[in-house]
Amino acid sequence: MAEIDRSSIDAVLAEAVTNGAHVGGVAIAANADGILYEGAFGALTAGGEATDATTLFRIASMTKALTSTAVLQLVERGALDLDATVASIVPAFGELQVLEGFDGETPVLRPPASQATVRQLLNHTSGLGYSFLNEKLARYHELTGTPEALAFEPSLLTVPLVHDPGTTWEYGTSTDWAGQVVEAVSGQRLDAYLAEHLFGPLGMASTTFAPDDAAVARLMPMHSRVEDGSLQPNGLELPREPQLISGGGGSYSTAGDYARFMRALLRGGELDGVRILEPASVDLLFTPSLGDVALPEVIRSTNPVLANDIPSLPLPQDWGLGLHLLLADVPGLRRAGTGDWAGLTNCYYWIDRASGVCGAVLTQAFPFFDQPIVGTALGFEAALYAQVGAPAAA
After folding, report:
1. Higher-confidence residue: 390 or 360?
2. Which one of 167, 253, 289, 344 has the fewest CB atoms closer than 10 angstroms to its CB?
3. Is residue 136 annotated as part of the catalytic site, yes or no?
4. First vs last Cα of the chain: how many Å apart?
5. What is d(CA 323, CA 319) in angstroms, rounded to the nearest whole number?
């Protein structure tokens, strides 16, 4: 592959800052052999210190792929069965009921028709949800005072299901429970397990669930899109020493660190002579697993401060055991079979095994699925594929 000409990609990112789509961020792209492009753009805050390759981000649900990898490692070792019930490993899961609705201000709960499996945690068919994306759960949190997901408190693991397992795709706290499975099976806290079996082996030295003072000094502040369209610091801080190690959203990382993880998946589970997964396990991340369960046409937000509505692409899609899957080529962009996802803080990534490239654009802003930021991510991807090769229009 020819060397990347940075100028067209740099221009996309510079324009994003000029037009107010971004305050700043870091974009990265790589293939199996190394980094194709890495560029910091803008500043940590408007008029402040410039971003750079060491800038740290709250990567939120980009954590899910890391936790899913840990689960598959334990399956490989024969310590875990994907079709085991979660309750057989973490008994507290068996206490969860299904939230049917409300009798006045009293939640109406019933036993689930079946017990969720570990596999259903990884593809989000366990019946669990998020309060910022589910009206029933939003009301449940309001009435019960149970802290929201971003509090990273153990009470999150008491929140009821909203569907019977296996019946519906619902994005939620499934991967937090997958983290509990990793803890129960490995005997280690999730952060310690990942440090030993993923972050350490891959050389992801900046990735953590509890940033120290030196790391916080490199952390981009959170911003919110305000009424005049600008991005302003919102003062949000996640707990530095969380009570719950959130496998679904609690980690911090740099673009360079996360690219090492993505490259390992591109390479079938190995990087620089270190293997984190066998090729067959990597395939499970990228293999459709939903069967007759359909993805929603729109994921509706119940909290516009945190997230916008998220419309589905008009293309065939599915979910593997840890990644969203696009099952058709996108002209000028990624190819069929690409695995991707994002973080609530407007971080986006993709891993395109057919083209042999991966990439991410990281920033720190609410609400999620901010159209100007999404536009930047797509512009970055298009500028990259214009050089590395992309599917032609149908």
Report:
1. 360
2. 167
3. no
4. 24
5. 6
Contact yes or no for 240/229 (Cβ under 8 A): no
pLDDT tens profile 77-113: 999 999 999 999 999 999 999 999 999 999 999 999 9
The 10s digit of each residue's pLDDT in 260-298 is 999 999 999 999 999 999 999 999 999 999 999 999 999
Distance CA 323, CA 342 (A): 10
Select which of 37, 61, 193, 258 is catalytic: 61
Q: State how far Cα 324 lies from the chain centre.
A: 10
All domains in the chain, ordered by first residue: 6-79+188-388 (3.40.710.10)
- Closest-CA residue to 172 (of 98, 227, 122): 122
Max CA distance (Å), the chain: 65
Q: What is the pLDDT of residues 23-41, one digit of tens each?
A: 999 999 999 999 999 999 9
CA distances from 263 to 64, 148, 319, 337 (A): 16, 33, 20, 16
Q: Note if 88 is an active site residue.
A: no
User: Does residue 253 carry a catalytic annotation?
Assistant: no
User: Which of 211, 216, 230, 218 minimizes the C-alpha distance to 49?
Assistant: 218
Other C-beta atoms closer than 10 Å to the C-beta of 224 total: 17
Half-sphere exposure of 372 (CA within 13 A, CB side): 20
Work out the pLDDT band at 3, boundaries 50, 70, 90. confident
Token digits of residue 376: 């930047």
